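Continuing the batch. This is chain 6 of the set; chains 1 through 5 are on the previous pages. Same settings as before, nothing changed between runs. Recording input and output for traceability.
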Amino acid sequence: MIDDFQGWARSHQARIETSLEALIPTAKLSPERLHDAMRFSVLGGGKRIRPLLAFAAGELSAADEDRVTIAAVAVELIHAYSLVHDDLPCMDDDVLRRGKPTCHVEYNEAIALLVGDSLQSLAFQLLAEYRLADTPQVQLDMIKRLAQAAGSRGMAGGQAVDLVSVGKTLSLPELESMHIHKTGALIRAAVMIGACCGNSLNDSQLKNLDHFAKYIGLAFQVVDDVLDTEATTATLGKTAGKDADNNKPTYVSILGVKQARELSEELRQDAYQALEVFGSAAVRLRQLTDYIIQREF
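Output for chain 6:
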């Protein structure tokens, strides 16, 4: 095991990048423009936090890294598809993502729509194609978990609520409910699917792990809202201040920056507590918790 967190993270980011390169169809394969756009939208950008969470959770169950890699790729493909669709003119209408033009700007809206569709279907193809768990039932549960996280009771549903909330004042519980679905569902799926690639955890451990993932998913969004207010477009790699400009409810608009930061710290402590049952095996999840809370861009 690489002792320092930065080394561990870089190693696994490189592993996931290599796997994405290999598993997304080459741009030389027909339809060339669609495959080129898929690769443009996924490769060479992003911090790969969801795959890192999957790898860290896999350490709790002594999961084979080859298994976790495929599961992590599937989660990252779902995440990338959501970003491509989120940037479309009919959604958030953004022109910058990960420091480069968004997919519909670089190509066109029709290609961007098809890129999202294709990345989503590729994610489930991979989950079905490779053996990722010790039993077929566990693997089916992994597929089901990712499908639920991406659908109307997860990420897509949260985005729908986000769209109808523009210009409205939400209560803190209403905002949390929206982000438990929009942002948190896929983060929870990454954690739980990564853990499922190894030895079975007991019900109490699974419950604690899911609680951890819920807290860290909310914390991720709280910090995102603070960064959207305080960071620059150059450091974020996407348009800063977009939520405020669009009059969207955020943790900052409801609580202010100071209280939002305090909330992120409370969520960090909740996440730590949920991991206590795992002892030293959860060291990478604790380090990722710190990274998510403390990140500056």
